[in-house]
Write a structure and sequence with these properties.
This protein is of the alpha/beta class. It has 14 helices and 15 strands. Strand 2 and strand 3 form a beta hairpin. Helix 3 runs antiparallel to helix 11. The chain starts with 7 loop residues before the first helix and ends with a helix. It binds pyridoxal-5'-phosphate (PLP).
Length: 404
């Protein structure tokens, strides 16, 4: 097995064709750097899509993984375990939440949130209160309920009848939300900064008004912080900078720093709608995942790392503004903390992917968010040297695209 030739062609032979990965196959990572099978080195501004919040193979995570790996891997929810309880306690202490539910991914955390919101509304207000309002271009995962709540038809259509009573309004459109929300609304679900949809920040007044409308109609406010959570925007969770507290919050991606884990956070009152057996997950609260997540959480939830995110944002903005001053290809650089997007101007509409491919040739990994935004979601502890070197490579990539 170990001397099997593993090439990109093997992907096409043996994998379900729902992805189109790059030719490059990385085999090793350290900090914000990756190396491929040929030993070629890359700077990683993609961070495993906002997952590797401490870069690759951070010593604190490697040590937690090794230590727990020699103790206990899995029990199931028939038994509880120390890492899960410690992590839950830390999440509760650090946030608005009083209760935590663990699962394995962002979609699962949102699936739990949506089911909890529905059950809570039905139990407390009656069977008519089932409407879920979400936002156009929103992204909440790939299960059938979560793609249906997500605001991108390309992900939700073509699978037959969808879960019912889900409506969408444009993000930041308060009038549209006002017109739709009623006492029949069970929850409003939003990202406190749309990630996959194009790095779109909410207007502060909009978020406040959403909270007030939810309160008026006894609807729960669900913040999907799967991409924004665990330090990404410079706060532990993005809601903390918005002056608005959700009723349910979901976290995944950076929560495990590269090990799969998801969590749903809520209050004791709302959590009570889930009784023994109402919902569950075999792997949820897995000790190995929780031990790694605990180490990631301890490392990220410090003033130095969170302040460092703001500092790094400034390095990026300065570098990207300088590149744009030369090449003039971006309409704006937007986002918050280390979730940043370069938005294509008129001339480069639909061509974000060309920048990604050119960057790869220059040994730099970046992301896109839709066809018009080049997205950066690097390690929260990326060094100044790595940012500078990565931006130098990005400038060469930009030059190539702009000069044809
Ligand atoms: C990535 C993402 C998800 C889905 O997470 P998975 O772990 O892929 O299931 C959900 N919501 C948001 C905001 C995301 O960015």
């Amino acid at each position: 097995m170990s001397d099997m030739a593993v090439t990109r062609e093997l992907f096409d032979q043996v994998m379900v064709p729902n992805y189109a990965p790059a030719q490059v196959i990385p085999v090793r990572g350290q900090g914000a750097r990756l190396w491929d099978q040929q030993g070629r080195e890359y700077i990683d501004f993609a961070g495993g899509i906002a997952v590797n919040c401490l870069g690759h193979c951070h010593p604190a995570l490697v040590s937690a993984l090794k230590e727990q790996g020699e103790k206990l891997w899995h029990l199931s929810n028939v038994l509880t375990n120390e890492p899960a309880l410690r992590l839950a306690k830390k999440l509760v202490d650090a946030t608005f939440a009083e209760k935590v539910y663990f699962c394995n991914s962002g979609a699962e955390a949102n699936e739990a949130a949506l089911k909890l919101a529905r059950r809570y509304a039905i139990d407390n207000f009656g069977p008519e209160k089932t409407q879920i309002i979400a936002f156009t271009q929103g992204f909440h995962g790939r299960t059938f309920f979560t793609v249906s709540v997500g605001g991108q038809a390309v992900y939700s259509d073509g699978f037959g009848p969808k879960p019912a009573d889900i409506d969408h309004v444009p993000y930041n459109d308060l009038a549209a939300l006002k017109a739709l929300i009623s006492d029949r609304t069970c929850a409003v679900v939003m990202e406190p900064l749309q990630g996959e949809g194009g790095i779109i920040s909410p207007e502060p007044a909009f978020v406040q008004a959403v909270r007030e409308l939810c309160d008026q109609h006894n609807a729960l406010l669900v913040f999907d912080e799967v991409q924004t959570g665990v330090g990404r925007t410079g706060a532990l969770y993005a809601y903390m900078d918005l002056g608005v507290t959700p009723d349910i919050l979901t976290s995944a991606k950076a929560l495990g720093g590269g090990f799969p884990i998801g969590a749903m956070l809520t209050t004791t009152k709302i959590a009570a709608a889930f009784k023994v057996g109402t919902h569950g997950s075999t792997y949820g609260g897995n000790p190995l995942a929780c031990a790694v997540a605990e180490a990631a959480f301890d490392t990220v939830n410090t003033e130095s790392v969170l302040k460092g995110v703001k500092e790094r944002e400034a390095w990026y903005r300065e570098g990207l503004d300088a590149i744009n001053a030369k090449y003039g290809c971006f309409k704006e650089v937007r986002g918050k903390g280390l979730l940043l997007g370069c938005v294509m101007n008129e001339q480069f509409q639909g061509r974000a992917r060309d920048f990604l491919l050119a960057a790869m040739e220059e040994q730099l990994m970046v992301l896109i968010a839709g066809a018009n935004v080049v997205r950066f979601a690097p390690s929260l502890v990326i060094t100044k040297e790595e940012v500078a070197e990565g931006l130098a490579r990005f400038e060469r990539a930009v030059a190539k695209v702009v000069n044809g």
